[in-house]
Amino acid sequence: MAELLSGTLDLLVLRVLNSGPLHGFGIGERIHVLSREALDVEEGSLYPALYRMEAKGWIESEWGQSERGRKAKLYSLTRDGRSQLETERENWNRAALAIRDILDNA
Amino acid sequence: MAELLSGTLDLLVLRVLNSGPLHGFGIGERIHVLSREALDVEEGSLYPALYRMEAKGWIESEWGQSERGRKAKLYSLTRDGRSQLETERENWNRAALAIRDILDNA
DNA sequence: AACAATTACCTCGACAATCTAGGCTTCGCG
DNA sequence: CGCGAAGCCTAGATTGTCGAGGTAATTGTT
Asked: Does CATH number 2.130.10.150 belong to domain A9-105?
């Protein structure tokens, strides 16, 4: 439930990782909580997204431990990832504003 | 050029038609102009979207004339379409707010 | 009259992102 | 010991969008 806006997942993941390294499961939790339960990232979407982003060089991973002491793959932003975050943030702002315009003024 | 947020096309079309009947080509133009060139709906996306929405009973069509006097298929909102517009508008507002939360507070 | 550009609609195939629905291992706790 | 939660993974189906084509009618231009 609680559908996710298509195409915004990368942006959200980048933004979360910009606050510090985190593992996949934790990223999903974080998005869920920060959105006050409004967004729910399915694992079947999240993990493939992480691989795509790693393949593009926006994030990198290493095995470590979660905050609960479990084995976990920790992702962190690369320099390219930080730059990509800014690009996608601007794209989002522009698109969201445009949609706002239409909803209000059409 | 000028990518469209995936999944928002229906909302935009419904919103434009809420201001009065219009033909497909005109809907695309209207979205383009109202968004101040920020959004560009490709015809390959628009027409299939119109058929989907008509099949779902949100809009209906009849052949008539465009404002330029050309033959055109005029679409208008149905009662279900108006209700769907409100639903999607709320979904959008909720999602956009949630994403704003994450971008600002993550 | 001939021609190009514009308006307007249509469709097919490719592609990308998401979801469903499974399955796996490890660990903590009662 | 057993169970549930934490955490990762993947295959398949679905869906939405786009690119690139095409057609027909009309308007404007030469």
From this structure: no
Report chain A's terminal Cα–Cα distance, integer Å: 30
Question: In the Cβ-directed half-sphere of B90, how many Cα atoms lie within 13 Å?
Answer: 6
Residues on chain B touching A92 (C-beta within 8 angstroms)? 99, 103
Q: Which residue has the tokens 């593009």?
A: A56
Q: Among residues A69, A67, A87, which one has the least CA distance to residue A27?
A: A67
Minimum-distance CB partner of B15 among A11, A97, A103: A103
A47 interfacial to chain B (CB closer than 8 Å)? no
Nearest CA in chain B to A90: B103
A78-105 confidence digits (pLDDT tens): 999 999 999 999 999 999 999 999 999 9
Cα–Cα distances (Å) from B44 to A44, B48, B59, B87, in that order, read: 29, 7, 19, 25
Among candidates A15, A91, A102 on the partner chain, residue whose Cβ is nearest the Cβ of B35: A102
Which nucleotide has the shortest C1'-to-CA distance from B1?
D18
pLDDT of residue B4 exceeding 80, the answer is no
